[in-house]
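Issue: ligand-bound run for nickel (II) ion - logging full I/O for the record.

Environment: standard queue, default settings, no custom constraints.

Inputs:
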Amino acid sequence: MAVRVIVQEPDPVLHKRAKEVTEITPKIIKLIDDMAETMYDADGVGLAAPQVGILKRVIVVDCGDEHGLIEMINPEILSKEGEQFGSEGCLSIVGINGDVRRAMTVTVKGLNRHGEEIIITGSELLARAFQHEVDHLNGILFTELAEKLYDTTERKGKEN
Ligand code: NI
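Outputs:
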């Protein structure tokens, strides 16, 4: 496993649609392992493959809940319920947070590394992470959806 470089906005790779994984090769397994390590190294709760420069539909999420590390290939949001409104950030957009309206609960279907179908329903932070990461696969960043953006570096400066 290896920590990969996290691509930063405004890199064009972040704005492209990632392609479906058609075969789970050793390269894809290595990608998933590296993405998890990169996410933990950066203290994130989720990461999508385009963020390490790979336009494949692969995400990893770990919100520190009972699910632990979720690895998902070709994730698809099957249903959305309710609404939540809150602060969100992104490892590819350092120093900016924003208030984003998201579904409160989502059910997501995808494949695990063995090619088996997995379906997970999550609420609150987990639902937010799923929606954020699936957006990444479609080239959408939270800053495009946010109703209000905050410069967190500036804020920190003011507090200090
Ligand atoms: Ni992100």
